[in-house]
Design brief:
Chain lengths: 183, 183, 183, 183
Amino acid sequence: MKKYSLDSAKVATSTRDWLKKRGVENEAIAALVLDMQTSYYPGLTIEECLENVDRVLSKREVQNAILTGIQLDMLAEQGKLEGPLQEMILNDEGLYGCDEILALSIVNVYGSIGLTNFGYLDKVKPGIIGKLNEKGGPMIHTFLDDIVGAIAASAASRIAHRKQEKAEALGAPQAGPEDGPGV
Amino acid sequence: MKKYSLDSAKVATSTRDWLKKRGVENEAIAALVLDMQTSYYPGLTIEECLENVDRVLSKREVQNAILTGIQLDMLAEQGKLEGPLQEMILNDEGLYGCDEILALSIVNVYGSIGLTNFGYLDKVKPGIIGKLNEKGGPMIHTFLDDIVGAIAASAASRIAHRKQEKAEALGAPQAGPEDGPGV
Amino acid sequence: MKKYSLDSAKVATSTRDWLKKRGVENEAIAALVLDMQTSYYPGLTIEECLENVDRVLSKREVQNAILTGIQLDMLAEQGKLEGPLQEMILNDEGLYGCDEILALSIVNVYGSIGLTNFGYLDKVKPGIIGKLNEKGGPMIHTFLDDIVGAIAASAASRIAHRKQEKAEALGAPQAGPEDGPGV
Amino acid sequence: MKKYSLDSAKVATSTRDWLKKRGVENEAIAALVLDMQTSYYPGLTIEECLENVDRVLSKREVQNAILTGIQLDMLAEQGKLEGPLQEMILNDEGLYGCDEILALSIVNVYGSIGLTNFGYLDKVKPGIIGKLNEKGGPMIHTFLDDIVGAIAASAASRIAHRKQEKAEALGAPQAGPEDGPGV
């Protein structure tokens, strides 16, 4: 038997492949980020958002949560989970919170300032999150809608940190807190 | 020197006193809860919301977070914190996240289903949260606005759990997930 | 098609059945609790520990985490997970942390004071945790060993809270912090 | 009045100054890391550990938690906190968990794999943690001992991630999980 050894490149590639296969393009996540942050950073471009989404997706903790969540969604879809767990995930049971827990583990990597945006996206369900959350289709996205919100919230946090760094490097005073980055 | 021993009644009483002194009546938190949950539970009353807020406030973890957060707000107000921490809390710095961290510790006691409502309240800032967040007055509420959102989100989670229990006890099928409790 | 509605009794029963089927008796968890707490509360009995384990297991958040973790262990065992996730869970990959994340969601319900005991149990792996963690058998317990540690740590937190309440009710001063409950 | 703007360099410098003033040298934290990880990575040097501690300390979330925790310790020491909070922090009350919460926010930045080492350090209290935890001296370190454990656990996580990257870059198979990095 071949000795196991972690292949990080494979984990990273699988994460990106699975997101696509489940109908989530990085561009759709970047659009959520741009929409949230554009009022705080008027010059923010979709390319910058895309670059930040990409960097979030390169973190191992993020990859682990994505692979685990999508796997559970797919198994529920195929009816392969057991007992009440199958029904809770299939039906996106409101009192089942492991989807929020995995999403939180993504947000935490970029610090607690992402919590607000995550909760907001999860409640309002704009763009791709709303699409994933539509019931009645063949696919189950109980975990994935929360995960996509967490990736977008994390990218927004990352942008807030970078913009601050850049402003300080330029010696330019940053905007005050009243008109802050909304994270 | 008198040996220290924890006086839980005093901790509980102080928590309630401090909330009031800082301008937060339980009724104002209950109003947030009612507003969030009334569409899911049409018969929900303000008395029920108040009772649930009260139960959240009786948890020690919640009391610890409230006392710690309000204490930091008051010290910032009085200019008694040191160095950059004083300025970050005084100005509700967007990249300072310890306020969200303490709030999260409140939400966690009632499970991850409260995260969404917490994030939403923290973003939209309805009712008392918006009032606490107004800048320019003599009081600093960098921690307290997040804490109040966390208490309201926790009370909403508690209601969702109780309503489910009651529905099952009655043998009545609960509403499906599409029209679920929004937690 | 029958409309879905959550059956809480079924979720609770499944949780207890699955733990047993995976080789974890409540008594084995209670033994961990007794071992951790007996030096702080000399009169503590195994029956009290068992009662507290039982109460932890009655919480829905705890049940959700247990069912989800055991399900992933069983699917890994049967080779039914896909791509690198299958290998990471099968081999208890050190850089895969979703097992710790689910366990943390259990601990959080009883407040952060359980974190220390959870981490300690996860490192030292006494009793049933060590048994679950043995490699080479037919069963995979990548999630379950962390989950059992989290249940034991939560029961220990619950005991610390109850003992304090009881001491205060009796008017007896509690032990000071130097010889505190180790949570 | 001068408009507030965040000065990140000042936050970073203050963090390092405060740690030193409170008796914590980076070398003492690095020694904890080396002691935990040396059996997994036999060639690990104190310089590498020090470099990883340094990188952990450069994260803003970590700086926020350190400044907030040390500030609360100092205020408790000076008797400047109010009511029962003063007594709980002064006496390192076992049922007060905000110290663990701030520490957890540090660990989370490096993913959940650090939880185990954090809990272990917090229980066993080796080296500088034990020294901080000694009662009877003029200084109060209710928050700082947890924070130091969290920094060490985070540095250990960071090392585990880096060692894996390096091993994969070299094409050398990593050690299997049985003899894994203990994170």
